[in-house]
Amino acid sequence: MVILLLSLCVAFGAQKPAFSQVLSELESDTQSTKIDEESPPLVWFVHGMLVFIEINFNKELETLRKIYPDATEITLKKWPAPLGPGVTAEAHWNHSVKVAEAYSAELAREIADLPPEDRQRLVLVGHSLGGRIAIRALARASRDPDFRIRQLILAGTATDFDDPDIPDAVRTSQRTVYNLINEYDVMLAAYKIAEKHTALGTGCLYPMRPERFYEISLVDSVSHFGYDYLERLLSSIQADDFRNRTIIVPQDEITAHVSTHGNDFFWKTHDEFLGWTLQCHTITGEYRILNPEKVRRASGKMTYMMSAFLRVKQQLTHQYEFRLPSDSLILPTSEPIVQFDALGSAGWWCDLETVESWRFQKNYTTSQYRLLDPQNRRRAYGTEKCVREAFRRAVE
Predict the structure, then answer these.
(1) pTM value?
(2) Mind listing the pLDDT tens digit for each residue in 201-213?
(3) Does residue 361 sit in helix, strand or coil?
């Protein structure tokens, strides 16, 4: 963590990096995962602490069956979360966290004891405090440099947004890790009050390559239910559209989105990028992030806001790359198609053929096919016959 913060201080120093420099530092999402299609996944779902609403678990498992239709097993990994609210909400939360931390060690041992072929096809899904359990378990297991599972999915995760175990857990996943978030989740707002820290379920502080770690945000919702998060992921997979409506900005303090017009006298711009600005208050030392409309999107301590602004830059850079003009090659397609960037979708597609950076792919969940061009844009989508013909015409 100290190394990360020091590197961020250098990156956000007085000398602002040129746009071309930012582009060169961010690796493009041009890799797809090649995994044996004959090896169906084994899915484990780790629930949160609200076990007294266990009826929701059936909805979450049903959604997971749609996301992983070829799974040989979809299992609810039950842990001994307290059954009732306890004497006080604070006491209930503290006891739940203690039990969850203990269970994570048990889960790590259970995963490690799987036969290697089963571990390689394991998909671990964690919701709320179950997401913390999943991260802890995989971070423990990552001490073995050869340890790998197939995929990690996090939904409304109740752990700190700068939890030091996050990068270690991400490294164990062969496919893209998806962090399903909701800035307005009412339970994660309570987490902020209880822990005096921001939850991962509202946005991760660490900037990571999007083909390794990608965030998808709920839209117009305050829900904390796991099935709402998983339905958002399912709809993204079915539409092959992983774009977020807005830029995701990790939060340090609970921040209202308010206009700052006429409120610039005591604020000095520390960095800016494509209309977004990182500012410092000349008296209090507080930092804030403003969008191009001068609306405050985040505020807090310097180190957190510097890292959050780097995440904003990362997203803006990918959006800018996609706006670059494409060629005029018209390809056949069996489905209506929008030529949008394939950013964030790598975890659900395998390459069947690749020629000169054109990629003919198949979706693990929907069994649909698509064609990506060298700029990672979707150029054809639909049946195997139609997309294969588009691939042949593109590379001939």
Answers:
(1) 0.81
(2) 999 998 888 889 9
(3) strand
